[in-house]
Structure to design on (165 residues):
């Protein structure tokens, strides 16, 4: 879907590799081994059912006039992503972790922008990207460690948590 943007050579940036695409439900920052164990224990107690998700629209952060990130939204019928996010926040708060301060937006980052060469053409190409009926099941979530390197982030799954069927 983003090939049009890439082919038009409208930006300098870094597309997120397919294997690194993810939705962040909560960011913890640096954790000690003991804190990782506490988070794992808190997340294991979350009782949540699997749900269907649909790929939504394309957008940018932080502001349309100064985009730094291109993202794709994920939608669910009853806003299950937000409810799961709130469950994670509440569960980890009981273990002493701060509540998330940012408003939750269910999205997947697809492109980090360094330079937009033609804002008008870039906006036009983004507006041409539409996803139709791409639906999939969310049946788990994971605690992931990210290590930032010069080549980009390296993600390692520490523990996977299944959702009920």
């Amino acid at each position: 879907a983003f090939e049009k943007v890439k082919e038009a050579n409208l930006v300098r940036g870094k597309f997120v590799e397919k294997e690194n695409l993810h939705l962040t439900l909560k960011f913890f920052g640096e954790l000690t081994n003991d804190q990782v164990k506490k988070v794992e224990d808190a997340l294991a107690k979350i009782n949540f059912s699997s749900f269907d998700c649909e790929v939504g629209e394309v957008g940018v952060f932080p502001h349309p006039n100064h985009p730094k990130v291109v993202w794709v939204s994920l939608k669910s019928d009853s806003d299950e992503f937000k409810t799961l996010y709130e469950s994670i926040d509440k569960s980890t708060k009981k273990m002493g972790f701060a509540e998330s301060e940012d408003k939750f937006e269910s999205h997947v980052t697809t492109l980090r922008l360094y330079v937009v060469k033609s804002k008008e053409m870039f906006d036009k190409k983004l507006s041409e990207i539409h996803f139709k009926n791409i639906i999939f099941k969310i049946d788990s979530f994971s605690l992931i460690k990210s290590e930032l390197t010069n080549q980009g982030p390296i993600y390692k799954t520490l523990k996977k948590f299944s959702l009920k069927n």
